[in-house]
Amino acid sequence: MSDARILDRGYRRYEGERSGVAGAVRSVAWHTVRSILGLGRKGRHKVFPIIVLVISFVPAVAFLALAILIGDLMQGDLRPQYWEMFGFSFVATLVFVALVAPEAIVRDRRDGMFSLYLSTPLARPSYLFAKVLAVLGTMALIVLGPPMLWLLGYTFQSQGPDGLLNWLGVMGRLLVAGLVICTVYTAVSLGVSSLTDRRAFASIAVVFVMLGASIATNVLVDVANLSQNWRVLDPLGGALEIAPRLFGDRSDESRNVSTWLVVVGNVGWTAFGAGLLVGRYRKLAAV
Predict the structure, then answer these.
(1) Which among 125, 150, 194, 243 could bridge 177 via Cys, Cβ 3.0 to 4.6 Å?
(2) Predicted confidence (pLDDT) per residue in 241-268, tens digit
(3) Taking the CB of residue 203, how many other CB atoms lie within 10 A of it?
(4) Is residue 12 part of a domain?
């Protein structure tokens, strides 16, 4: 016979603080960030996030080390432009977009958590907002972290922008450029990933769409000799092109493409990804 006894029966009302929808969004966003970074999970789930973070910061750390060691020699053509740091961390960003970011939404559908989330104060729009917020914030570590570290490091070495206003101007343009990159890549990654509940399939689909569109665009322009304006169909290069435009420069590949077309291309890819994501979850059954 068991010694277990029932000492009390019935239900108790929750008497703690109720944070409502805002609290639910914060909780889901933070839980998603932890899931993306592999925090609180087995070691194998931390491998890709750690690799991505290390790869993204290596160029910035290398240039800072050179600035410290050889000082004034890192001037002129030897010194990268501020906007070029986004290109140096491009590989790490692409790995994150394809292999890490899909985990934000794929896992919930695979494990049945999506239905449980909808039983809370969250609705579909607020759930998606939390997921987008989490991916944007995590991607910002990879996209914005290296340029900010590089700018701060050069500033401490007295090699940064002259004057407070110039420094704030450079910082502001880096923030805008990084947010554009994060927004476009997040929209496409989550939009394509919403079509499946398998992370491997989602990663393959993201690579196929983003790299496929980029390669096809380059073939159309460089091989078929079509207009340079077709480069706006490249989701990878189009997002990176915003950075040099903000600094009054242009990349060699898109030098003849007008700025308004570059903006239209980024808006189009963002709308494409957001439309896929919202459309998919609008039809997705909650049970």
Answers:
(1) 243
(2) 999 999 888 888 788 889 999 999 999 9
(3) 23
(4) no
